[in-house]
Amino acid sequence: MKLVSVTVENFRSITAARKIPLSGLTTLVGPNNEGKSNILRALVFAMGHLTGARPHPIRFRDGRQIRAVNWRARESMRYHWSNDCPLKLQKSGDSASKITLEFEFSDKDISEFYTAVGSRLNGTLPLSLLFNKDSVNVSIAKPGRGGKALNAKATRIAQFLASKIDIQYIPAVRTAGSAVQIVEELVAGELAKIESDPKYQQALADISALQQPVLEALSKSITATMRGFLPNIKKASIVIPEQDRSFALRGISSISLDDGVETDIGVKGDGVQSLAALALMRHSSLSRSEGKEILIALEEPESHLHPAAIHQLRNVLGELSSHSQVILTTHNPIFTNRDDPGQNIIVVKNRAYPARTVKEVRDILGVHLDDNLTSAEVVLIVEGDDDRIALTSILSSTVSLANALKTGRLAIDVLAGAGNLTHRVRLHADNICKVHAFLDDDASGRSALEAARKDGVLTNESANLTMVGGKQEAELEDLYRGELYAATIKAECGLDWQSRGTDENKKWSDRVRNILRRAGKPRSDADVMPIKLKVANAAAASGYPCLQPNKTGPIDSLINSLSDKLKLVSEKPN
Fold it and tell me: What's the pTM value of the predicted model, to 2 decimals?
């Protein structure tokens, strides 16, 4: 089961935001004070009241009422009519906020629904909650005879939904207090399980026996004092009810974190406290909702976090969305969905609608790009201009990638040094671009890739190295056919390129330096680069056929990866 849409009417600043589509990872984006948080809160309140966090009774059309007994534990998920119903509507006594949740059932859900409720479903089930001043009315928002029959069973339907799905709300302010509160709830839940143990009950009795003389003495002292003010008082007694004594023992807990120095979470930095609270909230949702689908509602995940931690958290949320729905509000482009722009919901002027293009998301977030990146959905990062020249032609050997390069959907960026990789990946990710890196398989390329992976900005899936069998290091030129550059080497060095020799296992640039050395020529990077550029232009003139047939693997993998990121049909190069 999953939630596929939410409709919000007359809730805070939102007058009508209808059928907002929800996916695995849905991002609400827009300027401040335009309604992002209000839409998320409306969803939280509706799900919270459905699953148990309600101070007022839920009323169903069949006359039944349900009141939760433990709503205080989820205060942040409560609807307050005086705050949440628009002020201009509160003058009318029958004004209310209406939130409609549309659920999609799997085949298994449909079967279980029939067993529990006795009705068959085809497609989705829309359930509306009407938040009045003193109650919440629930109805099934299906027209016709089928809707009438389902409304007669609204109580059982709501109970069925509550048994199948739950929500975990994670607010923007995540402090040490947030983390401690979650731990106290977890501890209380686990300790409650042992309170029926005879040993535990005996321990409580022993504590009570030790406390009782102290309480009696204090009661006598207070009674004497009170009689001076209230002569009719016979006795003042101080007692600790047995239930409260159990509650007190449940709530005694704190958290210490050892990240090199073990200290209480309260003295850790804001970023650590925020991530710790997020982790504990996630754990709490799994513990509390075992066996249910989890809907995670998250406000501003970027709050208090360092850029590196933000990228790591983005990966975590992506992983979570593979088995739990995640809905979040954000001002940070890194949390937007680059694969499907429609999963980014633009909230502006109290309206909400799916984005149609990546550019639309960039505009609403105020992301400004260089002209050559304005249309880019995917940026390929390479190390030097020679790589850019050659790869532009090689990739264009497939019609779809040639069109992507021509229209600007695919752009190629030059690092001018592998050490800049992490910074450039972050820059493009923040500009709502998907990124792929193509690096030399040498010490600097591998080191840059490892650093980017450790910082959480790049994965193996988004990188290729110019690996060549039998070589400890290799670069793009090592993939080329020898005849492509033999004449250039002869012209530059006055010596023939040796296809075999003592330096055969070295990368191409080192072999060129050896030829320059043997020829008595300068061999610095500045001397090798003009040769690389000439060879790159020769490769560009040849295209894909410049590659050795048995060494096309890294390029073929790159073509397939870029095609996947751009959602293109993979083609064989010409």
Answer: 0.66
